[in-house]
Amino acid sequence: MRKLTYFIACSIDGFIGDPSGDASSMYRFVDEEFLDYLKSQYPETVSTAGRLQLGIHGVRNQKFDTVIQGRASYQLALDVNITSPYAQLRELVASRTMKESPDPNVELVSGDVVNRVRELKAEESGLGIWLCGGSQLAGELLDEIDELVIKTYPLVYGSGMPMFGSDFADTEFMLDSVAAFDNGVLVRTYSRKR
Ligand SMILES: NC(=O)c1ccc[n+]([C@@H]2O[C@H](COP(=O)([O-])OP(=O)(O)OC[C@H]3O[C@@H](n4cnc5c(N)ncnc54)[C@H](OP(=O)(O)O)[C@@H]3O)[C@@H](O)[C@H]2O)c1
User: What's the pTM value of the predicted model, to 2 decimals?
Assistant: First the structure.
């Protein structure tokens, strides 16, 4: 079985964006040192447009070959006329309202999203599945998450969009590694304790 990894940016107090989900205040921490880390360790998580700008368009995927996101997260790309924000990956979007995929690289999941993720996990591949977000989809897929990669930015929001839009549940993870950067960013990797 391959892994479902929730690779996500959040504040110190565990929010993935402001109350509307806007995460743009985190972008200022993507400085040269941290960007070099992302480019070498997680290049496929940089948007296709960003990869072009950075000159890493042809770089091989390191951790993931598939991404799944909720429609509200995907909407941010659609709003700027991008239908395949992560063209270097196979893309799935969970939605009950979209009737037709706007892009041949994007598969819509309108039925049982947990079951679709289980099917993806059962596929043979050396690379994993990136759960991109947002909060609602991550809450629904919490039981399927095998790994967390949490990019924590040195910001306290006080309130905002939580990492998981789900009911209270005590779910244990084991810390695998911590990478610390000069600007205060931490990347913590946890495995699910089953
Ligand atoms: N900090 C970060 O790294 C990060 C990463 C990603 C996203 N975000 C933020 O997260 C925000 C969006 O999060 P969100 O929680 O509002 O929404 P979301 O999880 O991205 O998307 C929710 C939508 O997904 C669809 N959906 C959810 N469960 C489904 C199911 N079981 N079956 C079919 N469709 C399903 C529904 O779409 P329909 O309404 O079409 O049915 C639902 O409205 C954005 O503002 C974005 O900025 C932050």
Answer: 0.98
